[in-house]
């Protein structure tokens, strides 16, 4: 089985190496993860549907918005601080609070009317039936 990354946003590639820097730099530099916080998403395509699974830890179900349009899956949401106290002296503060959005181009046309979503234990699963289910096509090509 081979993994193929589809629907990567144009701003992903320059920052992948930065996100993977050794944690030794965390000692002297502030965390910049909040600038690029977006949910991690896996997309699986079958003959009849596309399934997206997103990690949304600490997000409340009521703070998530899902849209499907023009072969685009859009996941938006908001995370908030439970208790914000100005007098706290944080030694390390790495958790991200604020809004996030993720737009992914889908590999096939889906039916927004039959799309469903489930959210459990911080995992969002979106099932999108294809409008035109694909049938595996195989054709032998003769060489001239």
From TrEMBL:
Belongs to the small heat shock protein (HSP20) family. The keyword Lipid metabolism does not apply. Residues 32-144 form the SHSP domain. It comes from Caldanaerobacter subterraneus subsp. yonseiensis KB-1. It holds the Pfam family HSP20. Keywords: Stress response. Residues 36-144 form the CS domain. The keyword Transmembrane does not apply. This is Heat shock protein Hsp20. PANTHER family: HEAT-SHOCK PROTEIN 20 FAMILY MEMBER (PTHR11527). Gene3D superfamilies: 2.60.40.790.
């Amino acid at each position: 089985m081979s993994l193929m990354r589809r629907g990567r946003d144009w701003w992903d590639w320059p920052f992948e190496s930065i996100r993977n820097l050794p944690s030794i730099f965390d000692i002297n530099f502030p965390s910049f993860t909040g600038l690029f916080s977006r949910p991690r998403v896996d997309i699986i395509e079958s003959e009849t549907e596309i399934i997206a699974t997103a990690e949304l830890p600490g997000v409340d179900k009521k703070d998530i918005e899902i849209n499907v349009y023009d072969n685009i899956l859009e996941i938006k949401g908001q995370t908030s601080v439970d208790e914000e106290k100005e007098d706290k002296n944080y030694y390390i503060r790495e958790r991200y609070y604020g809004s996030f959005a993720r737009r992914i181009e889908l590999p096939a046309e889906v039916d927004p009317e039959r799309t469903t979503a489930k959210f459990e234990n911080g995992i969002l699963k979106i099932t999108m039936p294809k409008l035109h289910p694909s049938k595996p096509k195989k054709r032998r090509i003769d060489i001239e």
